[in-house]
Amino acid sequence: MPNTLGNLRLREFTRLPAEAIIGAAVLLGLPRRPRIITAATAGAALGALTLLSLLDIGFNEYLGRHFNIVLDWELLDDATSYMEDSMGDTTTVLLTIGAILLAVLLTALVALATVHVANLLARHKADASKGALIAGTVWITCTAFGLQIAGVPIAADHTAGVVKVHARRAMDTLRDEAQFAKDAKADTFGGTPPAQLVPDLRGKDVIFTFIESYGRSAIEDPEIAPGVTGTLDSSAEALAKAGFHAKSGWLTSATFGGNSWLGHSTTLSGLWIDNQQRYRTVMASDHLSLTKVFQKTGEWDTVGVMPGVQKSWPEQKYYGLDKVYNAFQLGYKGPKFSWSTMPDQYALEAFQRQVHGKKRDKDLMSEIILTSSHQPWAPIPKLVDWDDLGDGSVFKSIQKAGVKPADIISDSTRSKQEYGKSVSYSVTSLTQWLERYGTEDTVLVFLGDHQPMSRVSGVRASRDVPISIVAKDPKVLDKIADWNWTDGLQPASKAPVWKMDSFRDRFLTAYGSTPSASQ
Predict the structure, then answer these.
(1) What is the pTM of this model?
(2) Cross-referenced SUPFAM superfamilies, in alphabetical order (predicted)?
């Protein structure tokens, strides 16, 4: 059983597995009771390995990586929530029941089938022994001569290899947990006095915005790019007329296709957080996040706008946010757009109404997560007049007339088209908000959290995402002149590419922070 969708072809099943030959030899040598127990156990294990291969296929397609048997079980709950938002409760319940039945039946039926084969071997022991010997000889011969069918070796030890890979990955994960806990305690700026943190941004309202699934493919894939790059160019031109200028580069994300919180935390913590255990470790640590820097100075009010958060969010403490506005605190009365609880344009207008537009005694630092470009990219909101947004009810007819997730979820071409439209919508919403409400003291940092799933970005797509810094004050961009980023909102293909975890320290250094390691 292959563990990637690209290898799920008939020729893969024409291979001769070494494990079957060894298993037959072992079963032939056992008495009846041990033979049945061994066969049932081996069969159940084989069924479980098949389920792991199916999980590998799913994780490769959506997240660009293999399933981790230590860390990834809890992500299945997130997958269920995603399906509820994208396909509805009834469909999700039916699919969940189907998945559970598949797991139980596959394990049980393969176990029963293995017992049946073991009994057949025992009843025909002489012929079975000859057959095992012949099969073993064929396997050795095929290995020695490298015989293949359509480029696939006939002799296979795939199952043993899968077991070894999963075991090694599990051991590496356990070792990584212990080492990363030590690494997270070291912090280049952990001991920096508040007065020496980001002094060059005093007096500025700083906004960090993540655009969901805004990856390099949106700018460079020939099937997606024309619409997105056109949006970036027209948005940059409009911002320039309003007095804003920008520089853009690339970051390599710690995640792919999903698990956006890993991209957010990697960017803001300065640590490479590519799995759930690392995320939990950092969230429970005193490692200084980029957003908490502003809270630590005492010079900024710190706010989070999180329309995707629909339950308690203890991470608020780690990120140093005085106040978080979740999906239920932005006054939205319109419809959901699949997974996204509200259109980005509305979330930004609510931010303006409830936070940015109010008088304050301090400067403002905000973290905003935009969700309209979240898969399955259907239906997608449309821009409306900013003065007509109201409580969001204006989006009811737009949502009703939009494309249904089921219409594109298995169609790669349509998924690409709708993905590109969703990114254009998110970028336009953000830049129009800045053009409308930005001031001389506004500094906007916006970036993607990860590339879209491989069905859209491609099997061999990079993990790069665009990042831009936008401001009116020329001194803000002068501070990053030595970064060699591209002028405008669209990074050049040869613009610098940094790992996402390097951004925090580069940003803090550029804006005058003095390094002082935590003890």
Answers:
(1) 0.84
(2) Alkaline phosphatase-like (SSF53649)
Q: How far is CA 124 from the centre of its chain?
A: 53
CA 138 to chain CA centroid, Å, is 45
Can you say whether residue 64 is alpha, beta or left, with left for phi > 0 and alpha for psi between -120 and 50 degrees? left
Do 217 and 451 touch, CB atoms closer than 8 A?
A: yes
Q: Residues of 440-463 as b/e, b for ≥16 C-beta within 10 angstroms?
A: ebbbbbbbbbbbbbbbbbeeebbb
| Two structure tokens written together for 401 | 């007339």
Task: Report how far residue 39's alpha carbon sits from residue 27's, in angstroms, rounded to the nearest whole number.
Answer: 7
Q: Which residue shows structure tokens 């936070």?
A: 355
Question: What is residue 476's three-state secondary structure?
Answer: helix
Phi, psi of 317 (to 5 degrees): -65, -45
Paired sense of beta strands 442-448 and 245-252, if any: unpaired
Buried/exposed code over 343-375 (b: 16+ C-beta within 10 A; e: otherwise): bbbbbbbbbeebbbeeeeeebbbbbbbbbbbbb
How much is the pLDDT for 519? Answer: 65
Neighbours of 474 (CB within 10 A): 9
The kind and range of the H/E element at 144 are helix 125-145
Q: Tell me: the pLDDT tens digits for 92-145?
A: 888 889 989 999 999 999 999 999 999 999 999 999 999 999 999 999 999 998
pLDDT computed for residue 171 by the predictor = 83
Which amino acid is located at 242 in the chain? A
Q: What is the CA radius of gyration of the chain?
A: 27
The residues pairing with 249 across neighbouring beta strands, listed in sequence order, are 467
Q: CA 59 to CA 54: how far, in whole Å?
A: 9
Residue in this structure with the two tokens 């255990």, named with its chain if needed = 277
State the CATH class of domain 197-327+341-390+407-510: alpha beta
DSSP-based three-state secondary structure for 369: strand
Question: From CA 281, how far away is CA 109, in angstroms rounded?
Answer: 40
Q: Tell me if 44 sits within 8 A of 107, measured CB to CB.
A: yes
By the 8 A CB rule, do 364 and 437 touch? Answer: no
Residue ranges of the chain whose pLDDT lies below 50: none
Q: Are 341 and 310 in contact (CB under 8 A)?
A: yes
Token readout for 392 is 């969001």
CA distances to 10, 24, 27, 394 from 42, rounded to whole Å, are 24, 11, 11, 59
Whole-number pLDDT of residue 114: 94
The answer to whether 256 and 448 have CB atoms below 8 angstroms apart is no
Note the pLDDT of residue 405. Answer: 84
Name every residue whose Cβ is closer than 8 Å to that of residue 221 and which is 6 or more positions away in sequence: 416, 457, 458
| Chain-centre distance for alpha carbon 35 | 45
The token pair that represents 298 in the structure block: 């005492």
**Hey, is 300 helix, strand or coil?**
strand
pLDDT at position 85 is 66
Tally Cβ neighbours within 10 Å of residue 27: 23
Task: Specify whether the CB–CB gap between 271 and 333 falls below 8 A.
Answer: no
Among candidate residues 366, 177, 194, the one with its CA nearest the CA of residue 284: 177
DSSP class of residue 354? I
